[in-house]
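Appendix B: complex inputs.
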Amino acid sequence: MLQLNPDLSDLVSDATKGLLDRFNAQATVTAAAPGRVNLIGEHIDYCDGFVLPFAIDRHVVIVGTANGTREIRLATALNRQTVIIPAEEPVERGEPTWSDYLRGVIRGFQDRGHVIPGFDAFILSSVPGGAGLSSSAALECAMATFLEGLLDTVLDTKEKALLCQKAEHDFAGVPCGVMDQFASAFGRPNRLVLIDCRSEEPELVPFENPDLTVIISNTMAHHALTDGGYATRRKQTEEALAILGKASWRDVTEADVLANWEAMGDPVNRRARHVVSEIARTVAAAAALSRNDFETLGPLMAASHDSLRNDFEVSCEELDVMVDIARSIGRNGGVIGSRMTGGGFGGSTVTLCESGRAAEIAEILASRYAEATGIQPQIFASRPAMGAHLVG
Ligand code: GLA
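Resulting structure:
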């Protein structure tokens, strides 16, 4: 059975109750921002590539109100703890870790000259954490949108997404690309967000075919040992580009990679091969999708996964098992394509399939994965949802 996504209005009403319970306050501002799933274009947003994510209907909701004090007070359903941040000083990093995503965004507003008043806020999320579905970008974009509401100001959407990306860099210490924050900020119902990461311009691409379903399979695996793997991959791509002597990956061809294979050495040369081939695959996949050419799209998704596993080495056993199950169901069983999605080292896979077979496919993915690994996965479908917005 396909899990239903929690209704956004239920999340909002639970968060509103949380605010009342913890601060005895009524919400005057309610903001919601979604997580994302990426159909194709992995680990190339920081390489001037193209990526094809969409906002999922799982959200971070922040409800709150000005409190007339000099303190920002943040609470979540996680525990009874309240995080207190002085509102009048430039906000710095602090404890607990989740608050850094929010602190970084508040600081981004302060750096733009905004005076932040004291406020109380309650935060709830239906985006699974550590699942490669951008729960952190959702947290950042929800806070940025909440502050827009609180300050009665509107940031340009691109500026807002970049402010959130900077928060992730400076406060969470992850040198991420622009994909997650752009997907969370620009997402629209029935639209994919095709992002040209060189110009940082998103294009909304129709995804309306009711016969297509996107299944997200959270493997529940998160390999802490590989933390830092993301930053290492990013460094290796920079090293490769320097050896290739090019200003941008968009100017690099497969022939360039082969000509510099020895000079780059292993594993940098394989990282380079992934980047160049994944950029080409993503462009081809967006074109294939626009003409409903699934026989081209499926193999592109498969090749993307293989390249991430073999050349970029960001997959893991659990992701490979989940993708292999989808592959074994195959085109005849209604699966168009399947691959890991997001940063990797655990997290989720994305499977594009025929809607009529989706429930059955989800059953098979769940049962065979549990059989193979002993882990119960979390499997749900999502259509493209609305990006970060104020509610009500
Ligand atoms: C994480 C990062 C993104 C992107 C993906 C991999 O989600 O935050 O910027 O690099 O990994 O595609």
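Residues 42-43, 45-46, 134, 176-177, 179-180, 342-343 surround alpha-D-galactopyranose (CB under 6 Å).
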